[in-house]
Amino acid sequence: MKTFAEYLTESKHTYNYRIKIAGDVDSGFMSEFKEKLKQFDVVSMTAPKKTPVQKELKDFPQYNNESMTFMDVVFNYPATPPQITQIVQLLGMDPNRVIMQDTKYADSIDEERDTQDAENKNLLTDTDYPAPNKEQKALSKDYATGPYDHAVVKNAYKSDFTVAGGKTPPAVTSNEFPMGDKSPVGTTKNRLPAVHSNAR
Fold first, then answer.
1. How far apart are the C-alpha atoms of 148 and 144, rounded to whole Å?
2. Does 126 score more than 70 pLDDT?
3. pTM above 0.85, yes or no
4. In 3-state terms, the chain is what percent helix, strand and coil (to 5)?
5. I need a surface site. Which of 9, 49, 121, 174 has the fewest CB within 10 A?
């Protein structure tokens, strides 16, 4: 028969989190950060792991060309993301560079991203198009390098059809209007007004 202490140990609930930090983290900050986390009664804590520099951090889309440090922690008492961001802010770090996620949720997100990346890669490499035949290969080569002697390239195709109702006479534009043969400047003499004197 189990003792009361054994039942208590088995029923005890723990809280598993993954803490991610964008950018480089020095050892001094990490030591102080671990010390602050003790308030949640740490059961276990993995050593911080650092990713290579990435063009885009999927957990931190606002930061580019940076690495990411992450660690898994198990607490006896629950913690909230605002509590963790407040701790790093008190230690002098930008709180936007830190996120905390439930470990199972973080694992599922990473798995989903890996699947999506694999599908995107397949889309770039796989194709449902049939292999080009001999004529298509020849046309492709000619369009790419010349001598450009195909009728399509030379625009040699001509339409040969008759429109119902006959041909429409060309429209008359302002270019067809009769034009004068005199210059508007200097051809007509200005008419001067008659001047009357008021002198007596």
1. 9
2. no
3. no
4. 35, 20, 45
5. 174
